[in-house]
Amino acid sequence: MAAISCRRHRRDSKSIHMLFSPQKMTPFTILCSFILLLFTVGQCFADDDHEMEEFLKREYSLTKPYQAVGPLSSSHWELMGDAMVTTEQVRLTPDMQSRQGAVWSRLPCHLNDWEMQVHFKIHGKGKKNLNGDGLAIWYTKERMQKGPVFGNKDNFTGLGVFVDTYPNEEKQIEAQKKRYTPSTQRIFPFVLAMVGNGTISYDHERDGRPTELGGCNAMVRNLKHDTFLFIRYVRRRLTVMIDIDGQHEWRDCLDLPGVRLPKGFYFGATAITGDLSDNHDIISLKLYQLTVLRSKQEEEDQEEEITIPSVDNMELLRLGQTEEGMSGLAIFFTVLFSMLGCIFLVVVGLLLYGHWNENRRKRFY
User: Fold this and answer.
1) What UniProt keywords apply to this chain's record, in alphabetical order (predicted)?
2) pLDDT cut 70: percent of the chain above it
């Protein structure tokens, strides 16, 4: 597959070179080459998916009839707080005030590349913006510790993906009789991700904005169809997608390279309620091991031991967050299209100028 892919890409590159040769530079060939370039870039991303194979890891998965959940040492999952198991779900919190609950894996995960598919449900009697607070999916060094971050401890070490259902910052601004600017206003519920190194605090009052890696809005409350969250970590790239529309289609939420997560951390799910409440249910957590083809350079990089979670180029990431909801892939294509658009305009301008200059010379003969 990889060899075929390389040959195809070399053939496409040769076609692009021929289209861009000086003898064939016409507006039509420029447009064709532009389309071919976009197709080639799309194929590069598609090939990455074809190079992966996935295997369900049952020891890290939580599924019906939840026989592996309980206080026994032989169980793979352990409950905490107000969480309880029913025949249909693991209910992290009931629709009651001031509750928090969790379910944590007993086994540390030592996989290089993995994918977590979360089947969840958030529902309750509260109306829009009168519910809370949300749930979180974790891959962290610590486990079974209560706290204010969606039922887990603050200053955690690892990855947290949050489904935040209550706009704390928006309510504070409304109380101060101020208004959001259109560039900063969000629609809740909102899904966001954060990587902590044990010293970074989650800013609850600002809904985690100062430390988030990115996110998207997700209207997940009181839906009659199933809702899913997809978290993939492969080649040190973090991808988060959601399927909440009942169409069985994944929608991009976050795509970020340069995320460094150590091995040997624990998976978990937590939820919390305050003055407002909801039922927060986990129906399944399915973890897949990904087998990925790597280059020699990637194999060497993989051998580097990571002990502290981190994200490369956090300063550039902060600049990229000026536009809410844009993933790393969306930012890449925005920059790519902008550059190609500028090149296209310059080439067309040069061709038009050359045509005009040639016609002007002809008038003197």
Assistant:
1) Disulfide bond, Glycoprotein, Golgi apparatus, Lectin, Membrane, Metal-binding, Signal, Transmembrane, Transmembrane helix
2) 76
